[in-house]
Specification:
- The structure is a homodimer.
- By secondary structure, the first copy, chain A, is an alpha+beta fold.
- Chain A has helices at about 5-10, 10-20, 25-35, 45-55, 80-105, and strands spanning about 25, 60-65, 70-80.
- The first copy, chain A, has a single domain (about 5-105), classed as Arc Repressor Mutant, subunit A (Orthogonal Bundle), CATH 1.10.10.10.
- A 3-stranded antiparallel beta sheet of chain A has the order 1-3-2.
- In chain A, a hairpin with a 2-residue loop joins strand 2 and strand 3 (about 70-80).
- In chain A, helix 2 (about 10-20) crosses helix 4 (about 45-55) and helix 2 crosses helix 5 (about 80-105).
- The longest helix of chain A has 26 residues, at about 80-105.
- At the A-B interface, helix 1, helix 2 and helix 5 of A face helix 1 and helix 4 of B.
- The structure holds a DNA duplex.
DNA sequence: GATGCTATTCTGCGTTACTATATACCGGTA
DNA sequence: TACCGGTATATAGTAACGCAGAATAGCATC
């Protein structure tokens, strides 16, 4: 799927939050999980800016651990604020998705009644 | 629903396209329809930037008509390119929505198997 | 002519994801 | 040892989008 980047705005951060909530993980792995999900074009840099933002907003706890495969990894876990943020994200998503689907399936006559 | 603006990026344009596809309409009316839909905080300026973009990208035809209630209205209708754009939008939406919902409902264990 | 409503237009701003690149660390191999 | 590919974090610059806020226009009514 090409050129969905604009539609991912605001959504990607929620996905990252959700992925972190599943268990301690780090940037590179998050990127791979997003790709497996289907967002194949997501690159490390994008995820990095998101994790930096989460960090800045104090939504995650961070632990640095050594790796046998490269430089030390920064592992993220959701804190209480992050959990709350995630719940709010899902509420927003459900709201928007329901509205969009409503628009999509609405009978296609302007007056509403035939 | 407050502060959903980031999640509306790329989506709002599709909504406007869909509304225009229902029948000839103008900026102010589009704004009202979006509000009725549930996006209560959408303002005229936002819709204006979208219609300007549609115009610039040649996705709409324009007809100016006088109004008894103010300055002349600019009525928009979708042209062929706009129709195509709208179909692509819905495909993108379905793709993203399915992926997000997949993420949302996925069993919450990292390995996937219990 | 002052006010109020409808309606369009315009500008500047903040947020977000992407591109492209740099840096660092390790294992394997020649 | 010197190089390379995979892993992993970091940063600067860019473009797109929606929003706030204000200006302007036209008409009705008082």
């Amino acid at each position: 799927m090409e050129n969905i980047t604009e539609m991912l705005k605001g959504v990607l951060e929620g996905c990252v939050l959700e992925i972190i909530s599943r268990g301690e993980t780090y940037g590179y792995e998050i990127t791979q999980q997003l790709r497996e999900l289907g967002f194949t074009d997501v690159v490390e840099g994008t995820v990095y800016t998101i994790t930096m933002r989460l960090e800045k907003n104090n939504l995650v706890d961070i632990k640095k651990k050594p790796s046998t495969k490269g430089p030390p990894r920064k592992f993220y876990t959701l804190n209480a604020a992050g959990q709350e943020h995630l719940e709010i994200f899902w509420k927003k998503w459900e709201f928007i998705a329901s509205k969009i689907n409503e628009l999509k399936t609405k009978i296609k006559s302007k007056g509403g009644v035939i």
